[in-house]
Amino acid sequence: MKLKPEHQEFRNPKVFYPDPKSVDLDRVLVNFFLLLRCDGYRPASRARPKKAAETMDHHVDALIALGGVSGFEQHRDVAKAWLESDVFDLVNRGSPREAVASLRPLHLDAHKIRIAKHCRDYNVADALYAMMESGGPQAIRDLRDYLAVGRDAGTKKYDGQSKLDLETLTVLKLVEGIDDMLASGEKAAPEPPTCVGQSRVLCDDVQRLLAYRDVVPRPVMIDYLKTVFGLHVALYTLRLSRQLAGWIEARQSHPTCRSCPVNGTKDEPFAGCPYQQTFTVDMGGDYKARTAQVAQESAAGEYARLASLTKSLFTMNQLLRYAKEEKALGIPADPFEVPALLAKELPQFDADFKAKLKQIRSDNESDDEQLSPEERAILDAGLSAFDTFVELVTHVRQAHHVKYLREMLDKLFQKNGDAGALVQGRSAANPRRWKLGGRLLEVFVQIAVLDWTEEQGKKRFYTEPMLVDDFVRWIERRYGFSVASQRGAGATMDDHHAFRENVRGIKDRLREIGFYDDVSDAYNAQMIRPRYHVDERVAAGEMAGASA
User: How far apart are CA 169 and CA 88, in angstroms?
Assistant: First the structure.
């Protein structure tokens, strides 16, 4: 069936920023850094980089030509291999079509060497910036300051004083002499996210991680940030599927969403949220075990919601378009307002969509390709004109969008990676299931062991040990990952036994990554201890004492 572009609109910044595709998180970060540098505006166009800039030899030559470096010319092959593995992001790696995509996102200026056609983020960076900007302005300022460390604002070169790792220093040296990208007048993320609560939790996570800025190596910190960015955009996408479907069913936005109570500083951030989500996690190694089966069912259920998300987005986009065109109705083109159109009995609303259906039928029946039996069944099902229109568009376009949404979520959750929340085997018997990788678990611990006090309007973070059971509950309350229990009625004794083993599994993983050592069977001795100790209260106290 042929549909006009306005009939099948999917990506709409008012509701959903990403263009679902298989994204690379390093490239998302590079484009996000560009938005940070331009204060959220699109960069002004500049001359395209030379074709030679896509080759590694070009950048090896540039590094050799720089002052203050030595040894690279004598060991060119070694230098090139090191740049390829640790400093640059490449596409088609190892093939004749290998080309540079960008520098790795180790510094705010990494975007200066970026081949746009190879470094696409499919608007995920826009979504990330919108979340950061609406979730907490202080977090975005702190992040920008951290990422810019080592760059002299006057000379736009390495300041010669900041302690940087070799890779980050190399990034700064390579971008010397490249002008800053100027901002245009076009805002990249003009609309706030539909769920501001997820954004607030993301910003709180970022601020907590930045408390380690002086003790965690920079490449490790970038990896931590990349993990939480991908995780929160993925969780936001899944939450949006619940939120929009709920609004459309109720024919109004939820009153709680209008004054969202969610805040990342709370012990239970999503307490009061009408669209809470829980994912049963398997921490064992056997995909045939009981907890693995429940985790598979949980993951399958969440991915099945993508069909509902596509239909909800088609619905919301048509309502937004109609409200924009029919301003006399007095309903603003706002996601919080347009579901009310479904509750109003507007003869013109029904007539307008009947006209659209008539045009679709006419366009396709006069073509060589006739309507399929399924499409005719939808048209003759007796639904309202608007519902028929949405069902028809969904039938034609849903499979396409669900496929790419699935690929996008797999990348954002870093499936089968050490920083991932998902694993999947190669056989049909081993489908996706929720499982926390070692690096993701490490990030959770680093965030969880931080507490804070407020002094003069500024958060002062400090680390404290916490009980393993408290940590397990904290993961569920903050991110929805349930390790210790199965939700719903009908849990058997075997289920309870399986989830006790699951808790042992997470303890084993914590022990492997060095955060937990059960020196005693006593409950109050089963503690997670911080790897990096932070106490910003001490620094603040010392500064106050010195000024006095």
Answer: 13
Give CA 324 to chain center in angstroms: 29
Instruction: Express each pLDDT in 127-138 by its tens digit.
Output: 999 999 999 889
> Which of 188, 190, 193, 216 shows the shortest CA–CA distance to 203?
193
Q: The tokens 């490490």 sit on which residue?
A: 442
The residues that bridge with 183 in the sheet, in sequence order, are 43
Quote the pLDDT of residue 216.
94
Domain boundaries, the chain: 1-16+197-548, 25-193
Q: What are phi and psi of 288, to 5 degrees?
A: -95, -5
318 contacts: CB under 8 Å, gap ≥ 6: 9, 386, 389, 390
Query: For the chain, what is the mean pLDDT?
Result: 91
pTM of the model: 0.94
Report, in this order, helix, strand and coil percent for the chain, each rounded to 5: 55, 10, 40
Q: How far apart are the first and last CA of the chain?
A: 76
Q: Which residues of 276-290 are buried (b: 16+ CB within 10 A; e: fewer)?
A: ebebbbbbbeebebb
Tell how far CA 513 is from the center of its chain: 24
Half-sphere exposure of 494 (CA within 13 A, CB side): 5
Contact at 8 Å (CB) between 487 and 500?
no
Q: Return the residue matching tokens 């987005």.
A: 313
Q: Which of 539, 540, 515 is nearest to 527 (CA)?
A: 515
What mean pLDDT do residues 95-115 have?
Answer: 95
pLDDT digits (tens, 9 = 90+) for 181-203: 888 989 999 999 999 999 999 99
Nearest-angstrom CA–CA distance, 350 and 402 = 28
Model confidence band, residue 548 (pLDDT cutoffs 50, 70, 90): very low
Q: Is the pLDDT of residue 539 over 70?
A: no
